[in-house]
Amino acid sequence: MHKVDLPLESKEAAALEARREREKQRLTRIFNARHRTMGVDVEALRSQVEERKLREETEKRRDETYDAEQVLCDRVAQMLEEEERQRLRRLHQAVQEFREREQPPPTRREWDLYNPGCAGTPARVSDYDPRCGPASLQRFAGEDLALPTRRRLQQEQQCRSLEDQRAERQRALADTKYAGE
Fold it and tell me: Region (Disordered): which ranges (predicted)?
């Protein structure tokens, strides 16, 4: 590298000597396993770890605070909902009490429609009611007021007919049995 056999001037010699000294120190640093750091700044890494731990702790505390606040808000919301339910229940109860107190059934406008003690007759009693003329619009084609009675009579008639058929069949079986013996 350096030509050593040529005489050098004192400035150049001093610079060369300083360069050699720095090189020696560098080599001792490189080959000294105890003090060697291979491109890693340990203090910087420690500070980064500390910062990360501090940040995680801060986030954890913040999350715990938010959780506690959320629980508090949930309780307040539940209390408000319960108060609203009670308020609505009291309101409905007050309306019902008002209806019972101020609007009894006999004072209502439609009381005559569902009065159980009404002595009046219905608008029409049969298909041939003399009170209902053509303009009364009380009798319509296809309408049958006697339908329930007619169906009951038809069912009774059908039951009697079935009983007669059963009795006739039993007599016929008995006759064939008696004739066969």
Answer: 96-115, 152-181
